[in-house]
Each structure stands twice: as structure tokens, then as C-alpha cells.
Design brief:
The protein has 329 residues and is of the alpha/beta class. It is 45% helix and 22% strand. The chain contains 14 helices and 12 strands. The strands form 2 sheets. The protein has a 6-stranded mixed sheet with strand order 5-4-1-2-3-12, sandwiched between helices. Strands 8-7-6-9-11-10 form a 6-stranded mixed sheet, sandwiched between helices. Strand 1 and strand 2 form a beta hairpin. Helix 5 crosses helix 13. It is globular, with a radius of gyration of 20 Å.
């Protein structure tokens, strides 16, 4: 028996991986939900090329186009009504990023939006703000492969935000090269510390929210119960254990994917450093990110099409994100 479901899709082209999530819009009573029906992740690692050479290599470009073609076919099989594709730090940094996006448009008819850090934060804000409590003050930390985004929420309202071109792949490449940080890199790290310290004090933040694939994995390793905050001390312990392991042990003992096993250490240090600078002892780690904000945007933009005839509300409601996913990254 066919049961009609309107489906939306978000494709997040990050510096480490490309993620595609297809969600069905569910409506019952006065509640709307976005239920995940398909999730695909591929570790394309555009950042490896871009942060080392400034360009996306021909080999990566070919894989990129093939994978997007596969996602296009997947969305067709699912009868996806609307989709959105956003690319972040690697694509916006690459000298040939615009040319690659133009080729994708020409060959596949798919529009890739290359967004800046502020737009990325705005998407995530669409789902983060519904998790906040009244009269609480939060520091939101989102670490990607090429950049780190900070947002501060004061009594449910975003009052400050900043993006820094520091991410897990950039830090990993710096460490693997065996070179000391340059003056510019040290200056950027210091500016990040100053921003978090000053704004953390100014807005009296007491809680952290962490998003991103690496903090989700650290959270799963640190917590037996996935519905409670994790302490900074516990994150540090897990990170210390992983740091003491070889790559072979991280993959075969800790059961991390190879593309996660190397970047999780530099990413973890960014999360821990930010918590220390803001003097925060606990972190909430919801299973949401850029793709969820993109899906919420699609839901809002096409609500008149989605809304059943029985719904006479005058405002666009928020579509609840379903619970923490079982997919392991």
C-alpha cells in the first residue's frame, strides 16, 4: 500500500564529508515533524586538496560530480519535492570552487550554493533556538573541517556570532607537516580565544552546545546515556585516550572510520579550548547541524504547498527534528 509522503532533501558539502539527508514531512494534529528516511555520507575530503594547494584537484572534482549524480538519482527514486545544496569552507576557499559549481550546474542541473560562515550559522540557528531554555545563556560551538562557528544565545536570542577559518582538517595538516604555527595562524587562534573569552564573560554563558560530526562521535564515546549533557572533564578523558592510540588502534579498537580517526583529535581540542576559555563545564550535544537547518528552511519556504487543507493556522510552525540518529560517522 502506497502512503503519500512529501519529501525534502538537504545536501551539505563540507570540507571533510558530503552528507545527504532525505526527510519526510509528517503532520498529525497540530504537530509537524521531519522524519529521516534516508541518510548518506561520503568522506570526499575536499579540504585535503584546498587547504594544501588552494584548489580542488581534477581527481576529487570527478568523484564529486559522480557522487552528486548518485544523489540526484537517489532523490529521484524517493520523489523528493524540493532540495537544497550548500557548500562551506572548502568550496568557498578553493580558487576553482566557482568553476566546479558551474560545471555541476551545467552537467547535472544542480545548483550548489557556496555559503559563508554567517549563512552557515544562520541555518543552524533555525534548529538550535528551539532547544534553548528561557533565561539561560549558551555558547554554541560548531567545528567543521575548515572553519569554526561560534554563536552566543542570551535568553533564547542570538546576541553574538563569529566565524574563524580554523577547522579540523586545517589543524591536522598543520600538525602533520611538522611545522610550527605561523604568525598568522597564532594570531588567528589568539583572536578566537579573545572573542570567546570576552563574549563569554559579557553574556555570562554557563552552558555549551556542540554540533558537528566530531563532537557527536566524542559524545557517543563519552556517554552511556545519549540524552544528558557531557562534562568537559569526560570529553578530555576520551580525547586523551584517543590521542594515545595509533591510527590502527583508533580504527580497529575504537571503531572509528578512517576519515574520522585522524580529524577527531584536532577538532576535539578546539571544542575543549572553547569550553575552557568560556569557563564552561558541561556541553549539550544534540544530533543536529547544517543539514537540519537547511531542511527547516525548505519546510518554511514551501509550507503553503506542504500545508494540508485542514490546517488553517496563520503562521508557519516549527517542524520537530526526530531523535538522535543511529548512523555512526
Amino acid at each position: 500500500m502506497d502512503y503519500p509522503l512529501l519529501k525534502l532533501a538537504a545536501i551539505d558539502i563540507g570540507s571533510n564529508a558530503v552528507r545527504c539527508q532525505i526527510s519526510a514531512v509528517l503532520h498529525y494534529g497540530d504537530r509537524y515533524r521531519l522524519k529521516r528516511v534516508e541518510y548518506v555520507r561520503y568522506p570526499l575530503r575536499l579540504g585535503e586538496d584546498v587547504f594544501a594547494t588552494g584548489n580542488i584537484s581534477a581527481k576529487k572534482e570527478q568523484k564529486f560530480i559522480k557522487f552528486l549524480h548518485a544523489l540526484k538519482l537517489l532523490m529521484e527514486v524517493h520523489d523528493v519535492a524540493h532540495y537544497l545544496i550548500c557548500a562551506t569552507s572548502a568550496m568557498r576557499t578553493a580558487a576553482n570552487g566557482a568553476a566546479v559549481a558551474a560545471r555541476i550546474q551545467q552537467e547535472l542541473g544542480m545548483t550548489v550554493q557556496v555559503i559563508d560562515g554567517q549563512a552557515e550559522a544562520a541555518y543552524i540557528n533555525r534548529v538550535i533556538e528551539h532547544l534553548l531554555e528561557d533565561k539561560k545563556h549558551y555558547l554554541h560551538i560548531d567545528v567543521g573541517g575548515g572553519s569554526t562557528e561560534f554563536n552566543i544565545y542570551h535568553d533564547r536570542r542570538k546576541v553574538a556570532s563569529q566565524s574563524f577559518e580554523i577547522g579540523s582538517i586545517r589543524r591536522m595538516q598543520q600538525e602533520e607537516s611538522g611545522q610550527q604555527s605561523t604568525g598568522a595562524q597564532n594570531d588567528l587562534w589568539q583572536r578566537m580565544e579573545d572573542w570567546v573569552t570576552q563574549n563569554g564573560r559579557k553574556y555570562h554563558v554557563t552552558r555549551a552546545i556542540g554540533t558537528g560530526g566530531n563532537i557527536n562521535k566524542l559524545y557517543r564515546l563519552a556517554q552511556s546515556s545519549l540524552d544528558k549533557p557531557v562534562t568537559r572533564r569526560r570529553i578530555a578523558t576520551v580525547l586523551g585516550n584517543l590521542t594515545s592510540m595509533s591510527m590502527d588502534e583508533r580504527v580497529n579498537v575504537a571503531m572509528l572510520n578512517p576519515d574520522r580517526a585522524d580529524v577527531i583529535i584536532p577538532a576535539g581540542h578546539i571544542y575543549l579550548s572553547a569550553m575552557e576559555w568560556a569557563n564552561i563545564s558541561q556541553m549539550i550535544v544534540p544530533d543536529i547541524g547544517l543539514k537540519d537547518g537547511m531542511l527547516q528552511t525548505l519546510f518554511e519556504d514551501h509550507f503553503e504547498e506542504i500545508r494540508p487543507s485542514s490546517d488553517h493556522s496563520r503562521t508557519v510552525p516549527y517542524a520537530d527534528v526526530t531523535s538522535r540518529a543511529a548512523e555512526m560517522e
